[in-house]
TrEMBL record:
Protein name, per record: ATP-binding cassette domain-containing protein
InterPro entries cross-referenced by the UniProt entry: AAA+_ATPase (IPR003593), ABC_transporter-like_ATP-bd (IPR003439), ABC_transporter-like_CS (IPR017871), ABC_transporter_ATP-binding (IPR050763), DrrA (IPR005894), P-loop_NTPase (IPR027417)
Membrane topology of this protein: Peripheral membrane protein
Family: Belongs to the ABC transporter superfamily. Drug exporter-1 (DrugE1) (TC 3.A.1.105) family.
Domain ABC transporter: 6-236
Keywords of the record: Antibiotic resistance, ATP-binding, Cell membrane, Membrane, Nucleotide-binding, Translocase, Transport
Keyword hit for ATP-binding: yes
SUPFAM superfamilies documented for this protein: P-loop containing nucleoside triphosphate hydrolases
UniProt subcellular location: Cell membrane
C-alpha cells in the first residue's frame, strides 16, 4: 500500500460566521500531484495555509509526511515547502543571496550552502542572473527562484499555491516541467490553480472544492466522465453514405448510448453524425462492432469528451443551471 503524504479528515475552518471549510477530507499518496480546484473564495488558500501550519483549523485530523500536525507542527514544517501567492523572494538582494539566506535558515554549513545554492540556481537556469537583484527578474524568473529557495531544505512535500498565475505560456510550460521533475524525484506536490488545463496536465488526482466541501474528486478523466456531453462524431464525405448511416442509426437502439436515447443525431449539413458516448474503451468497442455489422464506414471518427472547464462549471455553478458543454477533440 502506498503511504499518504497528506491525510486530512474532517477539516473545518470558519472566519466569523462564514464557514470556509465544512468537513473536508483529503488523501494524497506520496510522490503524486494533487490539485485542488475551486472558484475564487472557495477556500483553497485557506486549505493550503492549514496544511502547511500557517493557519490553525477549527477541527480535523491532519497528518503530513506521517507527522500529526496538531501534535508536532515543527516536524511538519521540516517536511514541507510552500511557494506561491506568499513569495519568499526578497527583491532587494540578489538571487544568490536569497538562496544563501535560505541555506542559513536551514542551518546548512557554509560550504554546503554554497554548493546547494549553486546547484539549484543552475538547475533553474538562474546562474547568469544570480548576481543581479531579484527585483530585476521577470515574473517567471522570480517563480523559479521561489521554488529553488523552497528546495534548499529538500522538502518531500511541496505546496504550490497558484504557481503559474500571471506567467506567459512559455514560462508556464517551464514551470510544468519543473513540477514534473520534482515528482519524478519522488516529491509530493499539492497544487492549487485557476487553470484547469494545468490540473489536467499535471495532477494525478483533482478535487473540486465548492460550498465548503469537496464536490467531486478523481483523475481528470474520471471527472470528465461525471458530466454529460461526451460523444463520438462520424463524418462522411459521401452524402449517400451519410444518409444510409443516419437512417441505420435512427433504426438502432445503441446499447452503449449512455443517455438511453435512440441512435445518433444528425448534427448539420456537414455530413456529421453524433452518438452519445462516454468515450470509454468498452463503449467504443461496442460502437465500432455495431458500425461494422451495420456496414457503416465513416471517413473520420472522433471522440469528444467534456473538458475540465465543463466539469468545473457543472460542479461549481448555481444549482439548476445545466453544464455548458463544450466540444473538445481528443
Ligand atoms: N484571515 C481571514 N479573515 C477572514 N476571512 C478570511 C480570511 N482568509 C480568508 N477568508 C475568507 O475565506 C474565504 C476563502 O478564502 P481563500 O483565500 O481560502 O479562497 P481561495 O479559494 O484561495 O480563493 P482565490 O481563488 O480567490 O485565491 C473567502 O471568503 C475569504 O474572504
Amino acid at each position: 500500500m502506498t503511504s499518504l503524504a497528506i491525510a486530512a479528515n474532517g477539516l473545518r475552518k470558519s472566519y466569523g460566521d462564514k464557514t470556509v471549510l465544512d468537513g473536508v477530507d483529503l488523501a494524497v499518496p506520496e510522490g503524486t500531484v494533487f490539485s485542488l480546484l475551486g472558484p475564487n473564495g472557495a477556500g483553497k488558500t485557506t486549505a493550503v495555509k492549514i496544511l502547511s501550519t500557517l493557519v490553525t483549523a477549527d477541527a480535523g485530523d491532519i497528518r503530513i509526511g506521517g507527522h500529526d500536525l496538531a501534535a508536532d507542527p515543527q516536524a511538519v514544517r521540516g517536511a514541507i515547502g510552500v511557494t506561491g501567492q506568499f513569495s519568499a523572494v526578497d527583491g532587494l538582494i540578489t538571487g544568490e543571496e536569497n538562496m544563501l539566506l535560505m541555506a542559513d535558515l536551514h542551518h546548512l554549513p557554509r560550504a554546503e550552502g554554497r554548493r546547494v545554492a549553486a546547484e539549484l540556481l543552475e538547475r533553474f537556469d538562474l546562474t547568469e542572473a544570480a548576481k543581479k537583484p531579484a527585483s530585476t527578474y521577470s515574473g517567471g524568473m522570480k517563480r523559479r527562484l521561489d521554488i529553488a529557495m523552497t528546495l534548499v531544505g529538500a522538502p518531500r512535500i511541496i505546496f504550490l499555491d497558484e504557481p503559474t498565475t500571471g506567467l506567459d505560456p512559455r514560462s508556464r510550460h517551464t514551470m510544468w516541467q519543473i513540477i514534473r521533475g520534482l515528482v519524478s524525484d519522488g516529491v509530493t506536490v499539492f497544487l492549487t490553480t485557476q487553470y484547469l488545463e494545468e490540473a489536467d496536465q499535471l495532477a494525478d488526482r483533482i478535487a473540486v472544492l465548492n460550498d465548503g466541501g469537496i464536490a467531486a474528486e478523481g483523475s481528470a478523466e474520471e471527472l470528465k466522465r461525471l458530466i454529460p456531453g461526451g460523444h463520438v462524431r462520424l463524418r462522411f464525405t459521401d452524402p449517400a453514405a451519410y444518409r444510409s448511416a443516419a437512417s441505420a442509426l435512427r433504426e438502432a437502439t445503441l446499447p452503449h448510448a449512455r443517455t438511453g436515447s435512440r441512435g445518433g443525431t444528425p448534427v448539420d449539413e456537414a455530413l456529421v453524425l453524433r452518438i452519445p458516448s462516454d468515450g470509454s474503451q468498452r463503449e467504443l468497442r461496442s460502437l465500432l462492432d455495431w458500425l461494422d455489422s451495420a456496414g457503416i464506414e465513416a471517413d473520420e471518427l472522433t471522440v469528444h469528451t467534456p473538458d475540465l472547464d465543463d466539469v468545473f462549471f457543472a460542479l461549481t455553478g448555481p444549482a439548476g443551471i445545466p453544464a455548458q458543454t463544450k466540444e473538445n477533440v481528443r
